[in-house]
Amino acid sequence: MSKSTKMLTRVLQCISVGSAALPVVAAAQTPPPDASVAAPQSEETGTNPDIIVTARFRNELLQDTPLSISAFNAKMVENSVLTDVRDVQKFLPNVQLSRISFAGNALGASIRGVSFADLEKTFDPAIGVAIDGVFLGTNTGANIDFSDIESIEVLRGPQGTLYGRNTIGGTISVRRTRPTGEFGVKAHARYASFNATDFDAVVNLPKLGDAVSIKLFGLVRNSDSFTRNRTTGKREKGRDYYNLGIAAQFDLGGETTALASVDYQKDRSTFPSNINLTKAAGRPFGAGGTICDFTRSIGFGDLGCDTLGVVRQRAEKFKIANTSIPFLSSIDGWNASFELNSKLGDFALTAITGYRDTDDSILEENTGAPALPFAPGVNVPLFVAARDQSYKQLSQEVRISGNLSDSVDLIAGVYYLHTSYQIRPLPYNGMTSGQIYVLNGPAQGFTARQKLDSYAIFAESIIKLGSNVRLTLGGRYTTETKKFGIDFTIPAPFSASAKKTFSDPTGRVILDWKPNDDTMLYASWSRGFRSGGFNGRATTPTSIGPYNPERVDSFEAGLKADLLDGRLRFNPTVFWVEYNNKQEDIIRAAGVGTETIVENAASARIRGAELEIQARPTPELTLRASGGYLDPQYKSFLIPDLTRPGQFIDVSKQRNFRRAPEWTFNAGLDYQMRVSDANSVGLTIDYAYIDDITSSPFPDTTGAGRDVIKAYGTLDASLSFVHRGDALKELRVSAFARDFLHSGGRLANTLDAGVFYFGVVTPRRQLGVEATVKF
């Protein structure tokens, strides 16, 4: 072991002493007008900063907020070179975030074992994502690229009172910067492995009169893939994305302001081809057999089998791709928001309107198998998915906040969400009849559509029971109606439609106590509600649903403490979750294709613990760590008993609890050293570990372990030089490395599609440089 490696090992060991946990590391929101309660961090004393968060629609110090919450600001994003939402997982206990390749810029998220990672828009997310206060009704577009970021807040546990439906696992809230009214430019460029070239810029214009401040923003992302095509030897394509927008803030007189924002995004990104994990079943294709059986039966040997897929490609570190069709995942869309803040007597009034209009599509060879050579120079792909989805969303939230008395405050509001969605075939190879093609012949084709109207009313109060004891009481009632229809054309035509209304109350109770100014203890109960719905990719009239809502009740207790005169922040949490009517999305064989359905099959309990630590032994050095433990268990998992109509079998002992690794661990440091009045250098190191993750509810009976993503760790680092001046406000130049101990790629997810089993890969080591200039 080299001297430098020994030193790095010792540093990481020091960080992780006493267990692990991540800090919330940055001021997440502009302090309130009475900011005397939010004094900035002292560079002289090196104490941990006071952090302002808005998780409860109030400006609160993080250490005074009785929730499991982590927050980041632009400085943290820059120091650790965080490029999009999924990157923050490496700082968070019991959180897994990943890109879903099968929908435009989509996010797969799991918090405390509550997860969702499908592309279907009739299925609702389990983790809420908000941009500037506007919640997304789908996970498409939720993997937000980080540019022009003011703050990110991640709330763990159900958030059904203030944030509403489909937040049973937690919420991720991203805020962009507001127009400043002063001329200024921030420009950023990055070059990294695989020819990745990123550009983004923010331009603030001088204030127009006394009323209007305007900001222009945009970004461009381009790259190749880390994989090469086996036949041509050329790299597969990668990111091809841009986003342009404008925001304007209006000072309307008195205490009334308005913020309007509009942006357009276009994504033509291509992702690494899938990896074939399929084994032979020894049965005819279409009669319980697999793609592997099929290619063997028609004389093409193992082209559809894992022996020419994952077995071979793992040895190649997943850098060589088999398929001939690029994995295209695109999105086009307009996004707009309008936020009004004013006064209504003694109460503050906030109204937020959001609108999204997107089209996204995928075109891919789904099995990861090589093309079959049917004639000289003619190779035919095995199993192609080609589908297009359109989605529109309009939301409106109006709320008031203020004090009812010296000891009672109130936040209350109403919320409305309307969405409309359609899925249809995408033109492929001159054909428009199917979403699935086997050997270039349409094997499955349909159109489906859904409309949603959701209404909610909510209120929450914090009641002071004494000088250091508070009781939080909140409730929400949601009712919504979904109208669904599907028209199947291939292989067996049918049409079906249905309508269903779902309603549910949610709420929370929190009791917190501060025995002294630097310590808070709290205990809470909260309930989350995830809507019921329909199966948008059903293949028969009887499998469209509906399925019912699921409910999560979470019991949590925690401590938030600033110790050693503010140099050590220590935040442990324990929780117990009761999961009722749990929705299980299952991909299963349907003829020569597949269908994805959701069933209310299970009840479960999840228990766990988290610890977050941040220390500042010197003004220049910040140490941080986080750790999470999960113990999920099905209490029941019922499936129909085919031998006894109307009866069910409990198979809970034979099912996996997905995306709930037992252990997660993160540790890191930031060292910032001033070398002159104008110049400083900084070093950031981050290590993250995630235990084994199961990806399918069905254990792999072949013994190949295809249902498990093996535990892995990543080590990232960045070294930066920063110059600050008068005319040139800031110049920042950085070199960085992600996962620099490992080359090639790794399996990020595996999926059991019935007739085939496939994997999704992601790159490992990436090196790069970047520069940011502000003037």
Describe the structure.
With 775 residues, the protein is mainly β. It has a single domain, classed as Beta Barrel (Maltoporin, Chain A). Helices cover 4% and strands 57% of the residues. The chain contains four helices and 42 strands. The longest helix has 13 residues, at 3-15.
Summarize the structure.
This protein is mainly beta and 775 residues long.
Q: What CATH architecture would you give?
A: Beta Barrel
Instruction: Write down the overall mean pLDDT.
Output: 90
Name the CATH superfamily classification.
TonB-dependent receptor, beta-barrel domain
- Roughly how many Å apart are the termini? 45 Å
Q: Report the principal-axis shape.
A: globular
Count of beta strands: 42
Class by SSE composition: mainly beta
* CATH class assignment: Mainly Beta
- The fraction of residues in strands falls at over 45%
CATH fold name:
Maltoporin, Chain A
Based on CA atoms alone, the radius of gyration comes out at 26 Å
Keywords:
4 helices; mainly beta; five-stranded mixed β-sheet; disordered N terminus; Maltoporin, Chain A; 25-stranded mixed β-sheet
